[in-house]
Amino acid sequence: MKHFGLVVKLKPHYNGQSKRLKDVEISFPIVYGTISFWLGKKASEYNSHKWTVYVRGATNEDLSVIVKRVVFQLHPSFNNPTRIVESPPFELSESGWGEFEIAINIFFHNDVCDKQLDLYHQLKLYPEEDNGPQSTKKPVVIETYDEIVFFEPSEAFFLRVQNHPAAMVPRLPAGLNLPPPG
Q1: N or C: where does the chain have the smaller number of CB atoms within 10 Å of the terminal CB?
Q2: How far apart are the C-alpha atoms of 71 and 82, rounded to whole Å?
Q3: Stretch (H or E) spanning 85
């Protein structure tokens, strides 16, 4: 099941070293969510499902060009419920028996944005439609599509992401020329 979120608008961090590009926006489509599998005969009372929570590009692109780390806050009953993922893929796998809300905090590289993005996702282990017994072959997938929009990026940020497959980069305003990358 896919959910469509709102466009998240962020103003990139300005460190004074690179000029800002007025009237320019860079957009990154993202998907965050969970996929869970029932363990079938291997299931026990307190360990019935294996699941993964993730943040990635909308078509599975690597987001490390903008994302520095992702912090997943699990239910307090987990050992070490605050999990930090500092490299792609930005995902975490666990197993358990209950559904709960997962807080997802996305931290960006310094030249991208100095604010973190806080998202929330409800882990679902059981299918919405109740047509018979659970299957070990059919996962429960719940994800949300969002777009992160960065306004007035620095030239350095623009040059770094202009050819990235996930970035939706506009044409530059007339009269604005940037040096070639590298």
Answers
A1: C
A2: 7
A3: strand 82-85
Domain-located, residue 171: no
172 found inside a domain: no
Number of domains in the chain: 1
- Provide the domain limits for residue 125: 2-161
40 SS3 class: helix
Q: What is the pLDDT of residues 19-66, one digit of tens each?
A: 888 888 899 999 999 999 999 999 998 999 999 999 999 999 999 999
Please state the pTM of the whole predicted model: 0.85
Ranges of residues in the chain whose predicted pLDDT is under 70: 1-18, 130-133, 171-182
In which region does residue 68 sit, left (phi positive, over 0), alpha (psi from -120 to 50) or beta (all else)?
A: alpha
Instruction: Please give the structure tokens belonging to residue 40.
Output: 């079938």
Burial class (CB in 10 A: 0-12, 13-18, 19+), 59: exposed
In a domain, 179, yes or no: no
Burial class for 114, CB neighbours closer than 10 Å (0-12, 13-18, 19+): middle
Residue 78 main-chain phi, psi, to 5 deg? -80, 145
Q: Is the CB of residue 93 less than 8 Å from the CB of residue 50?
A: yes
- Tell whether the torsion through CA atoms of 94, 99, 100 and 103 is positive or negative: positive
